[in-house]
Structure formats: structure tokens, C-alpha cells
Hints:
The chain is about 50% helix and about 10% strand. By secondary structure, it is an alpha/beta fold.
Amino acid sequence: MTKFLISIVGPTAIGKTALSIKLAQHYNTDIISADSRQFFKEMQIGTAAPTKEELTAAKHHFIHHKSVQDHYNVGAFEKDALRFLNILFKTKNVVIMVGGSGLYVDAVTKGLDDFPEVDKTIRKSLNTDLKTKGLEHLQNQLKALDEATYNSIAIDNPHRVIRALEICLGSGKPYSSFINKEKNKRHFKTITIGLKADREIIYNRINQRVDFMVDSGLLEEVKNLLPFQELNALNTVGYKELFNYLNGEWTLDFAISEIKKNTRRFAKRQLTWFKRNENTLWFDYLSNTDNIINSIEKEMG
């Protein structure tokens, strides 16, 4: 019997978690998170991780199973998630996956791209450039070498920019030329459900969510993480802005306004990423769950 992974994607604050729980309850199955920041147990409020009530409404996996001090990347997640899916599919025909981290979603559904080995001194040089010349310099360099990647990755994330640049410089070919090659086949079929809304609605929902996070104690959560602010996991919207406030560089009001602005930018990049998949079934965020289930059943045949 064919096994199905239902992958729920869309911009932040659109309602993916709520839909995933409804679908998990309908299919009597589990949820795998593909949100690269909800993995970390110290980052609960700022990542809008599922609440205790939501975690008990359906069984979740890959939520708060790591520490920010752990080295955990997309390659490790791909291996862990596929191993776990094999276990779940022994007793279930359907599993739900939800998350807004496009690269992590693709790692499970399609497999990671195979990049060439490059000289390690290139990354060291780029990290030096980051410190001395700033992120914008690296962004402009990437735009000149590979505009397709510049337009599709999390351009405000220096680690992603440096990774793309080191491939461009080390191979002499655009990073994007290594994307979407033939990958390992999956032993399940993926049905991707996308949630969408008008931009103004998405932005309003983001602004409201940020205000709710602040009211729920986000600043205290970030204070506790101040000793670890240099870690990659914490180079994250909602955390890096408040580090600037706590370090005396910004006012609190300005930091909060920057969180909202940067989250809106992130949502725009998420949509750009997810819209590349032509097989995604898109629904308005207010769509009736029964209509979504009917579409899923048609795809299942």
C-alpha cells in the first residue's frame, strides 16, 4: 500500500500548526516538525512552537529535542526524519509534516543536493570578510555570482550566504547549478498543502503574533540566551534584534519594530521558496478543513 506524507507549507503565522493538528486527528497519525528553530528547547516563545495543548492534541516529533548548543544541521535532520518516517510508516499509511523551513522540508521530500567539496580556506576567508566588510558586501558578491540563489535563500542569514558563496567560488559554478539534480527516491508519496492569504493579512497576522510573543515573555527568554548569542541557532529573527536591545545598541520599541519587519521579509522569502513547487495544492488560510481533506483524498486516488 502506498504511504503518504502530507507536507503543510506556507508563510509564518498563516495557521500551519492548527491545520496540521486537524489533519493528524482526521488520519489518526503523528506530526513531524520541519521547523529548523523549533528543534531547540530553549527557543519556545520566539519560534511560536506548539503550545502544551497543541502538543497533546496530536503526537509531535522533532520539537524541542535539541539544545542551541548542539550542532544540528539539515543533513542530520534529513537522516533522522527519514529513519523516523520508516518507523511510523510501519503502522501508519499517512504522516503529517509541518514547517516553514523550506530547505528542511525539501530535504525530507526530495533529498539534499550533492555539492562538491571545496577548499576550507574559502570559508575562512569569507568569515573574515563578514567581520571586516559586513554582510551586505557578501550579499552583493553573491548577487553578482548567482542572482538566482540571491533571490531564493534567506539572504539575511550570513551562514546561508557564505555557504552559497563558498560553492560559487570553490567550484567556479553557480550554487544554483547544483540544485534540483536527480535525488534519492523516496518510498512514500508527498502531497503538499500550501496555505496562503493576501499580503496585508499575512503582515497583520505577523504583527499580532510578535506583540503576543512579547506579551508572553519573549524578552525574558532572549535574556536567558544572551551568553549564547553567537551560536548559529540564535541568529534568528526575534532573537538577534532583542540581543541588540540587551547589548544597548537599540531601544526596545525599535527592536520590536525590527522583529516585525524582518519577519515580514522572511514570510516573503518563504512564499518565493514554496511557490517553486508546481505540485503544491494551495488553499486560502480560512479554507474549510473538509475541503482540504477532499483534495488530499483525490490525490491519494
